[in-house]
Amino acid sequence: MELTEQVRRRPDGLLMFAITPPRRTTTPADAQRIADRTLERLAGLDLDALVLYDIDDETDRNPDERPFPYLPTLDPAEFRSRYLTRWQRPVVVYRSAGKYSPAELADWVTAQDPHQVSTVLVGASSGDSAVRTTLGEAQRLCREHAPDLPLGGVAIPERHESRGDEHLRMRRKQAAGVGFFVTQVVYDVGAAKSMVSDYHYACRDDGQQAVPVVFTLSVCGSPKTLEFLEWLGVHVPGWMRNDLHHTDDPLATSFDQCTAIAEDLAQFCTRHQIPYGFNVESVSIRRAEIEASVRLAAHLQARSHAGRHAVP
Amino acid sequence: MELTEQVRRRPDGLLMFAITPPRRTTTPADAQRIADRTLERLAGLDLDALVLYDIDDETDRNPDERPFPYLPTLDPAEFRSRYLTRWQRPVVVYRSAGKYSPAELADWVTAQDPHQVSTVLVGASSGDSAVRTTLGEAQRLCREHAPDLPLGGVAIPERHESRGDEHLRMRRKQAAGVGFFVTQVVYDVGAAKSMVSDYHYACRDDGQQAVPVVFTLSVCGSPKTLEFLEWLGVHVPGWMRNDLHHTDDPLATSFDQCTAIAEDLAQFCTRHQIPYGFNVESVSIRRAEIEASVRLAAHLQARSHAGRHAVP
Question: Which keywords belong to this entry (chains A, B) (predicted)?
């Protein structure tokens, strides 16, 4: 079933799980083992899509030392087509537009099966990156070469907090063909609510339907992971940071924080009839954090199913 | 029963209600009518204290036009002793230290019955006010002339958001004798949680007990009141402002927002064993907003009683 169909079927809680492809230096045998283990872990979940990130070395965006080293990863599209062949559901492949030439992007989007793949186009992480294709060009290429390929866009609550115009950027992306948004990892629930609120009212003012906003959640099991989240640009409210630093079990504390955020966002979106969903990722590769991510996704799935059954 | 006794009795939800004395030009007969009507409205509530504000013309702090005009009010201490004689419970009288000479303040604190009155000393609203007594001097005067008078202090979550050191200011006030805090009106629950979280951990690091933090809540029934709250320095998150602007019934929407904030703060403080309470005020003098404030206080009282009974 294609993603746009899933969106229609589940306006009250799309569920995605995001992974980062293994390092480029991984042997084919190891890449296959990693892919198989990932699918085993996710086998118990009723996911609407698997999200594959396209990692960029974002040191141009943040000059502070990266808490985890940057290591080039396998191309997410390649990882999918070579190693995730057993995955029968839709895949959302991220594409950092600036990394590819227009011809490369055009070839790639043309080759995708729109029933299986959708793509989230990501703009350059900073103004002075060496950009090979701008986000606008990439969007035009998609419309021209693969009009049926479902397009997603990125939405960043932190940018809305500092500049106040993320909702307008979302409206422009929507006009350029974007049919759903995936946010940066949400720790500041107020910022996320303000962003979707402004987006919701902007759509209403224009007489248009809002497209689903998929909120990314990520558990944090250690001070190092917390540091990495903040390095990535995630605003962690002071009280959450304190609780994560002072608890004996940061993973359990973080899990509770994530489910509280999800509950708040779900209630908010339901009240405003904004279609929404959740995307769970682990920003660290520690086993405990990955397993807690799978448990978080299971929790969100149970929550969403219970909600659906409660409403006649 | 004195306030410090109430604090001991109710670490899980002190309840106060705040009023502003009538304008200075009010006739004695009208002032008595206003006082009587206020006490009638509050008769159904089990309040731990009545809070009397000492209003300052804060135009030196905010150069923007004041949404409601500033009108000098009766002195809160005078209003209490002349017109609120029927009120048998404690009163918390605000004193803007800068408005009075040290001798005036010393005389006043000496004359108060510490079983009936406590005072919240407020510092000047901006650095360049014509200050007759600084906050530090006023605190010293209290310790010297009225060591038994319960002292309160002001805590401002917005200042914590922008400067990050409100918890240190709270710790200094506590060292100067402050036994409870009353916050500025809370709309940004995350900011309030981060402030008390930092305060809580600072107390713990110093091996000291946190004193109660009384959160001020205020319903907003119109765009004008919202504008006034923001003029006063209250940070209203974008999504709350949107909802208040787009609803047919702002008072009902605001009431729900306030009870959600209260629930969040109560759960947070309970989880961290931070003694807390609520203070309800109406920043507008519109009847509908005042009546909704009384309903909000009744709701908080019912919530707190239910909570007490639920825990064996």
Answer: Oxidoreductase
What ipTM was predicted for this assembly? 0.90
Has residue A277 got a pLDDT over 80?
yes
Whole-number Å distance between alpha carbons of B181 and B214: 6
Read off the pTM.
Answer: 0.92
Cβ within 8 Å, pair A242-B198: yes
The answer, for B179 touching chain A at a CB cutoff of 8 Å, is no
Q: Please give the residue of chain B at the shortest CA–CA distance from A193.
A: B239
Interface membership of B194 toward A (CB under 8 Å): yes
Interface contact flag, A237 B194, Cβ < 8 Å: yes
How far apart (Å, rounded) are the C-alpha atoms in residues B3 and A214? Answer: 49
B264 touches chain A (CB under 8 A): no
- Residues from chain B that touch A268, judged by Cβ atoms under 8 A, are 239
Q: How far is CA B262 from CA A88, A270, B15, B240, B301, in A?
A: 46, 21, 12, 15, 11
**Cβ–Cβ under 8 Å, residues A307 and A13:** yes
In the CATH hierarchy, which fold is given to the domain comprising B3-305?
TIM Barrel (3.20.20)
DSSP designation for A234: -
Tens of pLDDT, residue by residue over B2-28, are 666 666 666 567 999 999 999 999 999
